Amino acid sequence: MAALLDTEQLQTFVAIAETGSFTRAAETVFKTQSAVSMQMKRLEERIGRQMFLREGRSVRLTQDGETLLDYARRIIDMNTQALMAFSECGLDGHIRLGTPDDYADRFLPEILARFARTHPKVEVTVLCEPSPMLADRIRNHDLDLALITHVEGRGPAEVVRREPLHWVTSARSCAHSCEVLPLALGRSTCDWRQAAEQALIEAGRPYRILYSSWHSMAVAAAVTAGLAISVLPESAVRHDMRVLGPSDGFPSLPSCKIALLRDYNKESDLVSALAEHIISSLDTPKALDAAE
Description:
Blueprint: H1 7-19, H2 22-29, H3 33-47, E1 52-55, E2 58-61, H4 63-85, E3 93-99, H5 101-118, E4 122-128, H6 131-139, E5 145-149, E6 158-163, E7 165-170, E8 181-185, H7 191-203, E9 207-212, H8 216-224, E10 230-233, E11 241-244, E12 256-262, H9 269-282, E13 289-290
Parallel strand pairs: 3-4, 3-5, 8-9
Antiparallel strand pairs: 1-2, 5-12, 6-12, 6-13, 7-10, 7-11
Helix pairs in contact: 1-2, 1-3, 1-4, 2-3, 5-9
């Protein structure tokens, strides 16, 4: 009888496929990079096929790797469900999570997929609103957790990720060369808008708000159409955008702090479990920190 596939190796394989990097996958599965490399060597030897193609510091799946990925996810899911079926302490219930729509688009698919695999009985309600509104909802006990853009004065929060904040324009536009800069930003209480306006005022750059919206897709549409420039954290910069810096005449911006807010009056094992998934998904080296 052929030996069975190792589920731990498959978990590491899926992490590499999802992150595109042995290094980032090692952080996800809490192993050293050398341990991850050894696991993948043994997996390829077991299957007898090459799973990855290296492209600089990144990797992508071969056709055989793509085939294995579907099986690996199903094997891991079935293994988790089997364990949960016989677990006396499996978590169930309902949890309310808030996040701005741009974080929902970039981060929630991985977070919710991982959480569902380990806690399939839990119902998660997601509310998408701007960070100031989510902070208010946490204070009013309307949410259990909220993933927000953190600034000083917003109260205690757990900073789980830091990213540079960039000026961006369309890759095919000259909007950034206008004498009066056309801007596409969030509403007046948006933290990134306030940072952008303050930086331009201090630099003496004239500007006008051409488009304003709470919805990140609307702001991005104005940028990619070449109508305006905006500010975005590094992970939100799209392939059809160009980053503007000092050489283009643009002032520096503060970093973007992404933080987790909790309603500590309703702290539970369920809330802690989802919080841990969010932190492990968003954590970057040296990023975990207490907010000022």
